[in-house]
Each structure stands twice: as structure tokens, then as C-alpha cells.
Amino acid sequence: PALIVPRIRPRREQLIRAERLRDLGWVTVISPDQLQQGMIRRWLETCEVPVPDRQSLNLNGLQSIGDRLMHIRDTRPLMCRAEPGVGSSGERPMKSAVGR
After folding, report:
1. 2-46 pLDDT, tens per residue?
2. Interatomic CA distance for residues 80 and 2, integer angstroms
3. What share of the chain is helix, strand, coil (3-state, %, to 5)?
């Protein structure tokens, strides 16, 4: 069980992340603006603990970033060539008529 009271100033990043985890069923969130005396105690006493769906959150970040980088590499056109000015089939690019 987790209760999060995220910082909302100077940026709302913690609140956004906490709300996303709440929406996935992983945590309970109380905004600091709504926090009142006794709320945390009542939360502990009621035991209304969310039961998260373990499939809803990918905790394998290292594998995920590797997969994403491989996808980017495989889907983006090459921006450089082994020999400058030579295309993949060996042809040279046409010279521009602009500036002649």
C-alpha cells in the first residue's frame, strides 16, 4: 500500500506521475492542497488499499529503452553514409542548379 502526497510547486511533475500511478491502481494520491488533519490516519485505518494490476506497469526499464532505441534505429533513414555523397546503391547525388 502506498499513499502519495506529491509536491505540486514549483512544478506539477510529481502530481502528474502520482495521478498516472493512481489511475493504474498502484497508489492512493492526496493533493497537498486537499490534505487535512487526520487524512493520513484515516487512510491507514480504512485499509482501502488499491490492488494493482501487475501487467499495467512495465518495471523493466532497461530492456524497454533498448527495445525503443533499436526500433528508432531500424525505422529512421540513415543520416550519414560510409562515403559522403554516395547513396545506398552507389549513385552520387545530383548537383543542385541553385547558386550557379
Report:
1. 899 999 999 999 999 999 999 988 889 999 999 999 998 888 888
2. 49
3. 35, 5, 60
